[in-house]
């Protein structure tokens, strides 16, 4: 019996560990909140129309690094992340990376932590409070929807006019 004792104890330990494991449901909600931007021009009738940028590039300006996001050629819709550790962030916007004229977009916002579910955990939702831009290529930039959350069907947040 004493020779079987280590095997019996091992079997009891393995069984108890397997019995205590918890299978979590997968997270089916988007955890990343994105600010959605659109590029526009004003036509002759004064109506805003999509403005396809030839080779757009956004570069996030951080204290310790620069991180670039290059988008497919000839697009007018963009999605960017906001910093969840501060109440503002800046992006360099290069509408045509082959020319290199640069504008700066500065987003100011309030952050709030949001519980999604047990399987997804927490994420940050944002409320845009202000938006500043330089005017080398950009005519104006306006906030159309100030609530940034994980709803993929919410309207575009920012419109940039060239």
Describe this structure in a few short sentences.
The chain is mostly beta strands. The chain is 10% helix and 44% strand.
Key terms:
162 residues, mainly beta, six-stranded antiparallel β-sheet, five-stranded mixed β-sheet, 1 helix
Structure write-up:
With 162 residues, this protein is mostly beta strands. Helix content is 10%, strand content 44%. It contains 1 helix and 11 strands, in the order H-E-E-E-E-E-E-E-E-E-E-E. It has one helix at 5-20; strands spanning 34-42, 48-50, 57-61, 66-70, 77-81, 88-94, 103-117, 121-133, 140-143, 147-148, 158-161. Strands 4-3-6-7-8-10 form a 6-stranded antiparallel beta sheet, with no helix packed on it. Strands 1, 2, 5, 9 and 11 form a 5-stranded mixed beta sheet that branches. Strand 1 and strand 2 (48-50) form a beta hairpin. The N and C termini lie far apart (85 Å). The model has no long low-confidence stretch (mean pLDDT 84).
Provide mean pLDDT, rounded.
Answer: 84
CA-based shape: globular
Largest sheet: 6 strands, antiparallel
- How many beta-strand elements? 11
SS class: mainly beta
Sequence-ordered SSE layout with sheet pairings:
Elements: H1 5-20, E1 34-42, E2 48-50, E3 57-61, E4 66-70, E5 77-81, E6 88-94, E7 103-117, E8 121-133, E9 140-143, E10 147-148, E11 158-161
Parallel strand pairs: 1-11
Antiparallel strand pairs: 1-2, 1-5, 3-4, 3-6, 6-7, 7-8, 8-10, 9-11
């Amino acid at each position: 019996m004493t020779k079987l004792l280590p095997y019996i104890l091992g079997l009891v330990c393995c069984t108890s560990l397997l019995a205590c494991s918890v299978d979590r449901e997968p997270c089916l909600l988007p955890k990343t909140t994105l600010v959605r931007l659109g590029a526009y021009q004003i036509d002759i009738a004064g109506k805003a129309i999509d403005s396809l940028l030839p080779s757009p590039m956004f570069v996030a300006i951080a204290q310790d690094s620069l991180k670039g996001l290059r988008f497919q050629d000839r697009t007018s819709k963009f999605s960017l992340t906001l910093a969840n550790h501060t109440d503002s962030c800046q992006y360099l916007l290069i509408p045509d990376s082959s020319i290199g004229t640069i504008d700066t977009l500065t987003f100011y916002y309030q952050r709030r932590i949001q519980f999604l579910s047990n399987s997804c955990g927490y994420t940050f939702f944002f409320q845009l409070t202000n938006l500043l831009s330089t005017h080398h290529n950009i005519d104006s930039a306006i906030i159309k929807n100030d609530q940034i959350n994980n709803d993929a069907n919410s309207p575009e947040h920012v419109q940039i006019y060239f």
